[in-house]
């Protein structure tokens, strides 16, 4: 009797283990293009439990790619209202256990819209930016390439994000500045100012993140990334690195503007003292600081506007408890540290530009293309 019980136990255990193994087999998911042939029905249905409504369509769509290309299937769609003739991407899911498959609406086909506005951008860039705009585009491509092919693989391979981000930021600053503005002392002064600002901002960010005890897990993306990489990424360092990289775009504007301001002031009065030029250039920089800081802060607010509305609608706690939460504290510290770095970029770049350009022969250039060589 006991052997029969043991055999039954082993059989049940084997079945349970097999069932668990089957449950762990992932479905096969592919993304294919499809086109709406006919909208069979189109209405609005309530979403249970929340009092809101959602669109609900039944559509017939022709699959344009993949193993089912040419077939016309009926799909349910509660994501985005589609119309006859519209192209969209569908998610094709095949169950690995029983072989059943289903198609669901994923996204509208947006690539033509993206292509149009990319073309419009290039036309405007070449029409009004000329050679300087072309140089800027090359610098942008180089910067994106460094981020995609150096920064991201480096972080995923386990390299500490903060020093890697500072290193990549330094290369982006040097390469982008000289490609766009040419090799000359004015550009070199701006580069020196940006590099100094990145280092100072990195130090401030390190202090802020560790003092504020931020974990780097303020978003769902960070949580999923931690799962997918099995905890192989330093998310505090990733937070710091993201702050440094995010600063670069506006930092270019501040540093180049201040270096050019010093160059122009020296061009008008070569006999002025360093202190006088620094004071006058800093006066120009103060006007720039207000606009830059406001731009950075409003950009962050705009990016998180849906989240702010959600908290405004649902939160019943005090404002101080809300901003103390990591999600808000992270963005506030990001804004404050980034804005502080931008402010410091003005006197740092101004001082370095005055030191590097004062007493030098005026450069022969036209229209500040900064393509000349010193």
Count of individual beta strands? 5
Sheet/helix structural class: alpha+beta
| Structure annotation, total helices | 10
Low-confidence stretches: 1-10, 16-23, 363-374
The rounded distance between the terminal residues' Cα atoms is 98 Å
Largest sheet: 5 strands, antiparallel
Total domain units: 2
- Name of the CATH architecture of the largest domain: Up-down Bundle
> Would you list the SSEs in sequence order as H and E?
HEEEEEHHHHHHHHH
- Give the CATH class of the largest domain: Mainly Alpha
Strand arrangement in the largest pleated sheet: 3-2-1-4-5
Q: Briefly note the CATH topology name of the largest domain.
A: Multidrug efflux transporter AcrB transmembrane fold
Overall pLDDT score: 79
Strand content: 5-15%
Provide the gyration radius in Å.
29 Å
Shape: elongated
Helix content: 55-70%
Write a compact overview of the structure shown.
The chain has 374 residues and is of the alpha+beta class. The chain has ten helices and five strands, in the order αβββββααααααααα. It is 64% helix and 14% strand.
Please explain how this structure is put together.
With 374 residues, this protein is α+β, with helices and mostly antiparallel strands. The protein has two domains: 28-107, OB fold (Dihydrolipoamide Acetyltransferase, E2P) (Beta Barrel), CATH 2.40.50; 121-357, Up-down Bundle (Multidrug efflux transporter AcrB transmembrane fold). Helix content is 64%, strand content 14%. It has ten helices and five strands. It has helices spanning 2-24, 111-156, 161-181, 185-211, 220-228, 235-268, 274-303, 305-314, 319-324, 326-357, and strands at 28-46, 53-63, 72-77, 87-94, 101-108. Strands 3-2-1-4-5 form a five-stranded antiparallel β-sheet, with no helix packed on it. Mean pLDDT is 79; it is low at 1-10, 16-23 and 363-374.
């Amino acid at each position: 009797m006991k052997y029969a019980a043991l055999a039954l136990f082993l059989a049940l255990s084997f079945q349970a283990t097999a069932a668990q193994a089957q449950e762990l087999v992932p479905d096969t998911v592919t993304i294919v293009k499809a086109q709406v042939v006919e909208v069979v029905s189109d209405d609005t249905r309530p979403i249970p439990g929340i009092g809101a409504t959602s669109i609900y369509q039944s559509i017939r769509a022709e699959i344009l790619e993949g193993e089912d290309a040419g077939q016309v299937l009926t799909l349910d769609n509660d994501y985005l209202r589609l119309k006859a003739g519209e192209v969209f991407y569908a998610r094709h899911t095949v169950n690995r256990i029983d072989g059943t498959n289903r198609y669901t609406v994923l996204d509208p086909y947006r690539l033509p819209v993206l292509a149009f506005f990319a073309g419009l951008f290039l036309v405007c860039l070449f029409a009004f930016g000329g050679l300087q705009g072309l140089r800027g585009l090359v610098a942008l491509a180089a910067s994106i390439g460094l981020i995609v092919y150096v920064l991201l693989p480096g972080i995923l391979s386990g390299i500490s994000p903060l020093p890697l981000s500072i290193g990549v930021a330094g290369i982006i600053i040097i390469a982008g500045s000289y490609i766009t503005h040419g090799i000359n002392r004015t550009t070199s002064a701006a580069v020196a100012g940006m590099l100094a600002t990145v280092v100072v901002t990195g130090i401030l960010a390190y202090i802020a993140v560790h003092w504020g005890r931020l974990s780097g897990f303020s978003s769902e993306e960070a949580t999923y990334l931690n799962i997918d990489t099995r905890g192989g990424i330093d998310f505090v360092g990733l937070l710091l690195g993201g702050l440094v990289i995010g600063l670069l775009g506006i930092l270019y504007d501040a540093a180049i503007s201040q270096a050019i301001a010093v160059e122009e002031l020296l061009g008008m009065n070569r006999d002025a003292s360093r202190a006088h030029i620094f004071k006058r250039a800093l006066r120009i920089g103060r006007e720039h600081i207000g606009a830059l800081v406001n731009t950075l802060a409003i950009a962050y607010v705009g990016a998180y506007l849906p989240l702010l509305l959600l908290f405004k609608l649902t939160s019943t706690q005090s404002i101080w408890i809300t901003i103390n939460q990591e999600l808000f504290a992270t963005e506030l510290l990001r804004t404050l540290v980034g804005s502080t770095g931008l402010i410091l970029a003005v006197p740092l770049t101004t001082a370095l530009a005055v030191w590097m350009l004062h007493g030098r022969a005026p450069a022969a250039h036209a229209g500040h293309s900064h393509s000349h060589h010193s």
